[in-house]
Amino acid sequence: MRALLGSIVGLFRHICISRNHGGGNIIGKSGMCSSKLSLKKTICARLRNLNPLVPVDHSLPCPCNNGIIHSQLLSTQASPDEEEKEVTDELFNQIVSTIEKTPNLNSEIISSFISKLSKANNFPLASKLLNSLREKHLFLHPGSYETLLKAASEANDLEFVSQIFKDQLMSNMPLCSSSYRNTAKAFAKTKGSDLILKFIREISEMTFPENTTVMNRIMFAFSECGETDKALLIFNHIKHLHCKPDLISYNIVLSIFGRAGRVDEMLHEFNSMKKINIKPDIVSYNTIINSFKKMGRLDLSLAFLRELGEQGIEPDLRTYTSLIESFGRSGNVEESLRLFGEMKQKRIRPSIYVYRSLIKNLKQMGKLEMAMKLFDEMNSCKSNLVGPQDFKRRNK
After folding, report:
1. What would the DSSP string read from start to end of 107-168?
2. What is the pLDDT of residues 262-318, one digit of tens each?
3. How big is the CA angle at 250 (ends 249 and 254), to the nearest 5 degrees?
4. Would you list the DSSP string of 223-275?
5. CB count, 10 Å around CB of 125?
6. In the chain, N or C terminus with fewer CB closer than 10 Å?
7. Residue 5 DSSP symbol
8. Coil, helix or strand for 152?
């Protein structure tokens, strides 16, 4: 690691020397002078040794042959038994000092350095560098944060996970779902609730007044990781913060209870959201209907289908597909056909899956003539049916 830092410091120094001699930005506009091009090649070549993903522009002349780069690289040879993570404060201070003097430093250099620190699990130094960059209102590329967050999560370093996640939020760049998942995975290993609730309070304060959206994504990530109790803990905690649950929050909770078969708690939250004037939507009702369907309570599923209509909400293809398949499998093909007709009457475009389900269940009930009629109908309108490609587009 000492050798790595020495090489990075050398690159930073090359940049500063070039700029002190009127080099300006490394990557400029058209008319870039040969010294800048050579410097760019040298930096990229060095970075390639540190990170094979950084491309090298082979069209540029070799700076060594042109005698352009003369500065001496700083290097420190580590002893064989020395731990790779040991880095002197002196070397780190030289890096920070160089960044301070070079505000427009090429982000690829810093990203490469961060990647190396992450692979070495050198989180103390990485944390120190992030703090220094944040103080100067500088932030990493999202990919660098992702690399660090994944490594810190796997190492169960909660303090550093929290720091990285907060830096990502402060960067004002969108966080991808893997950032939330890696954060949830790290906190999933904790016992008790103190650390999680402290983290939630801090994030809520940071992201106000848009904190509900962030909280929803955190809850969803915990749910995806199978940590339903922790997701519910967060849901109940944010009610006491400057972050009130919204429709999406309740839909996440309804889904958690529904998948777990905890229908009493699901219905309690369903009624609670209505009491505080959060109107359920089609997602809410589909969750309720599917949950009762899984329990075999198709009578209750139909009751909520009626309530859905009474509330002025139109059922969708998912609503009907769930009920048509369930009634068909239970042997009540008459109800399946009634729902199928109702769906077409509402001009909801059927899917090929609905047709196949109906045809299969009709055959099993010995209603071959009706099955063949639906088969011909399916083939005649096949191009207009909802297929796998439609679901893929919708879920993007």
Report:
1. HHHHHHHHHHHHHTT-HHHHHHHHHHHHHTT----HHHHHHHHHHHHHTT-HHHHHHHHHHH
2. 999 999 999 999 999 999 999 999 999 999 999 999 999 999 999 999 999 999 999
3. 125
4. HHTT-HHHHHHHHHHHTTTT----HHHHHHHHHHHHHHT-HHHHHHHHHHHHH
5. 19
6. C
7. H
8. helix
